[in-house]
Amino acid sequence: MANLKDIRERIKSVKSIKQVTKAMKMVAAAKMRRAQDNMEKARPYSEKISDLVATFLLDEQNHELPEVKVRDNIDKVLFVIITSDRGMAGAFNTNVLKVAHKAIDEFGKENAQLICIGKKSATYFKSRGYNIVLDYIDFWNTLSFDTGLNVAQDIISRYMNKEVDRVQVIYNKFINVAKQEVCDEIFLPITTSTESIDEENQLSDMIYEPSKQVVIEKMIPRYLNIIIWQYLLESNASEQAARMLAMENATSNADDMIKDLTLQFNKARQTAITTEMLEIVSGAEALN
Domain for residue 286, yes or no? Predict the structure, then answer.
């Protein structure tokens, strides 16, 4: 059994760690509230513009647009992997990296290009020799719409210049504070769902001003920019929620460890007291 000094030092160490995890939980909670608020404010706009684009795609003529037309041969795929810069967020990064790794290997590592958003994904795939064409790191604390535009333009330009034939984005979608879902979505070509749209009513009620072609040409780039921005907001809110939950669990585990160590300390102290008393009694008996 460990001596009293060792147990006392361990209790002190665990209490120090508990203070750190508790502080990190409070910081993550504050950041999560801001990130969740920004994400939820952006959702209605991104959902509405997605519905508009889906309505445009009801017209077969729009399927010939370069952002919509599916290419005959998919030789090169661009994978956009969104993770965080820092760890200590439970399985937040691990889940994304597992899905991304599997998807890339299934398509073929030699034909895949990667854009890594976040230091964790950049480090992971760089150490394994994957073809990383671009990475974005150390920007989450100052995340802005301009950052989202830059990311979107880099992705879109590679597709429009026919450097790649498809773009897939793998990220964490915010469901609630306790749950984040890893999504693997095709970003380009545009493949929005049209199942829930009443084709007859939508096409008959739609009025284009100044013209149908101009509206579509303006709407598609805006849609792509907004979707990338939404991906970033979802991932940021998911990261802070995962970190807050991880730090809460760590703090709870520290409390349990302190209780166990305190019990162990009391048992060791009682054993030491009993031993000393026996020694005293034995010495007194020897003298008699």
Answer: no
